[in-house]
UniProtKB/TrEMBL annotation:
Protein name from the UniProt record: Sodium:neurotransmitter symporter family protein
SUPFAM superfamilies associated with the record: SNF-like (SSF161070)
Keywords: Membrane, Transmembrane, Transmembrane helix, Transport
Organism in which the protein naturally occurs: Anaerotignum neopropionicum
Record-annotated membrane-spanning stretches: 12-32, 44-68, 89-113, 143-165, 177-199, 219-243, 255-281, 301-334, 346-367, 395-413, 434-457
Cellular component annotations (GO), alphabetically ordered: membrane
Amino acid sequence: MSTTIENRGQFGSKLGFILSAAGSAVGLGNIWKFPGKAYNNGGGSFLVIYILMVAIIGTTVMLAEFVLGRKTQKNAIGALRELNEKYSWVGGLGVLTGFIILCYYCQVGGWTIKYIIAYLTESATVYADPTAYFLNMLGVNGFPLQGAIIFPLIFLALTSFIISRGVADGIEKLSKFLMPLLFILLIGLMIRACTLPGAGEGVAYMLHFDPSKINGNSFLVALGQAFFSLSLGMGVMITYASYLSKEDNLISNTGVVCVLDTCVALFAGFMIIPAVCATGIDPGMGGGFAFATLAGVFMSIPGGTIFGLLFYSLLFFAAITSSISILEGTVAFLVEEKGMERKKTVVYVSMVLFVIGVFYTLSQAYMNIKGIWWSLDGVQFPILGDFMEYLTDRLLLPFGAFFTTVFVGWIWGTDNAIKEATSDGKYKFSLAPAWAFLVKFAAPIAILCIIIAGLFLGMSIA
Ligand code: PHE
């Protein structure tokens, strides 16, 4: 194991780690998923719940993962195995979760490449009817060769290529350059979207706290989204923290990564929702927010094509720094625990997840139109994409997070964990008693509630 760790290297700087962990966290979840969920769950009311979930449960689980990683200096499965042999399967569960997420992540990542090229070569066609362009990519007018096969394959090939060469250096360098750029651009676009004529209604909706809009489901959606967005519950943060030294302050790192990730989600929300109101595009489109809706925005601002090109490039980079972190989890597991050869593993895993992923895009429009599979005999089966999100966000990630907190709180013990979190007392952690309480009681109970509700309430992921 130690050779592998040496091969992977260490983060070169404190900032490098923060930006790489933020690079994993900031991804499609923030820009593509979050605004739609905020819109559907009451705007401002949802933001309040989401921020509370991140502040209370998200930070708790993230620190627990950081502590496990830095203590053992191992990947997710190795880390749990070292501390208690019986729990290494929890890491295995994370690997499975990552695999399922990647199936659809690579598809949407592919769409971002398609849009980059569209903005370079045929922006007029996009602008002619942004919604139709998006739906066409999904297959309303025939098999979506580009949206389901060609571009996702390119995205996956790029992800695999980087992974097969090892990542620590590449990710760190890339993240250091791209994350600040992403921030600047998002803020610029948010200001532009909020000042569009007619955007005021959207801004007001996102700022209005209406307690009557809050229900049990808002909490469930917010917590599931928080885990996904912060890359928690599947061991990615355990693996990343395994590259840290005792000099690093895990407590402040947790705060910074959570704040950065949440800011990006909020900026994306304040960019997309006001734009929806200003352009009047049907907000019920879910996954289309970041594509169809924003294309409408770019169309209506001076220099919009350049902004569009930059936006989809950054969406692509945000997606790839996340997809790398997920694929690395699966590959590292098969290489380190099952003794498989790295390059071959990357190819095999990529092929399987690509084939499953194709059905994700097909299921969005093409298969619904063709009526294959889930509309058999009039019985409506859930759309595959919704089902994958439900499985990962509502069940598997919370399950992983639940066992991480139980493991740290009860099996390994909060005293050990706090000792590691403070680098043996070097750093101050005045909230340590509160954190211990959250890891042992509040977080596992809250997470268990979302798992049970997810099982019994069914598939509401909106
Ligand atoms: N956090 C990433 C996003 O918001 C997705 C992700 C989930 C990455 C789980 C790693 C692990 O897009």
